Amino acid sequence: MNLPNRITLTRIFLVPVMMLFLLVNFSFGEGLLKIGASFEVSYNDLIAALIFIIAASTDGIDGHIARSRNLVTNLGKLLDPLADKLLVSAALISLVALGKCEAWMVVVIISREFAVTGLRQIALLDGKVMAASNWGKAKTITQIIAISALMINNFPFALLGIPFADIMIWIATLITIYSGIDYFVKNKSVIHFSE
Question: For 70-85, what is each residue's pLDDT tens digit?
Answer without folding.
Answer: 888 877 877 888 899 9
